[in-house]
Design goal:
single chain; mainly beta; Immunoglobulin-like; 5-stranded mixed beta sheet; 4-stranded antiparallel beta sheet; 1 helix; 13 strands; about 50% strand
Length: about 160
């Protein structure tokens, strides 16, 4: 009976693979597995000013940053004749899968409206879960004093 021959895998290949896996587990507790998550949900809503809709205004979605106030938007859209708008969900691509720690990323985002060349903060939110859709109803208010800046608020429903 002929003897069966097995192909030998070089020991160097095994050592290289084992050391790469061991290094990724011990140093960063991460594996090189790409994945994605929603950093902000699909946002639909209406912007009102005074008693009626606010058509033709730009609504901006941005990351929270106390210094820029929506200076670097993730997305923006112009309100329609009824003051309604829709901002698409923003996806984040990750290249490493963390194995330890708090890797369930929540969502943090800011909504602003551009009025007379200035960004007015409408809402800022941080939640510890991933939502697919957010419904917002925003209002712009100018204080009775004509020198006061316009202010904005939003009610957010998930």
């Amino acid at each position: 009976m002929p003897r069966r021959q097995h192909r030998r895998v070089p020991m160097r290949s095994w050592l290289t693979t084992a050391s790469a896996v061991l290094a990724s587990l011990t140093v960063g507790a991460c594996l090189p597995i790409p994945w994605s998550y929603n950093r902000s949900p699909l946002i639909t809503g209406q912007l009102r000013s005074g008693a009626g809709p606010a058509p033709g205004l730009t609504v901006i979605l941005a990351e929270p940053d106390s210094t820029s106030r929506c200076a670097t938007p993730l997305a923006s859209v112009v309100t329609d004749s009824a003051g309604q708008f829709q901002l698409p969900a923003q996806r984040q691509r990750m290249h490493w899968l963390p194995l330890m720690g708090d890797w369930v990323f929540g969502q943090s985002w800011v909504l602003c409206a551009r009025i007379e060349g200035r960004n007015i903060n409408l809402a800022q939110t941080t939640i510890n879960k991933r939502e697919k859709h957010a419904q917002v109803r925003c209002s712009l208010v100018r204080m009775p004093d004509s020198t006061a800046a316009t202010q904005g608020t939003c009610d957010i429903t998930y």
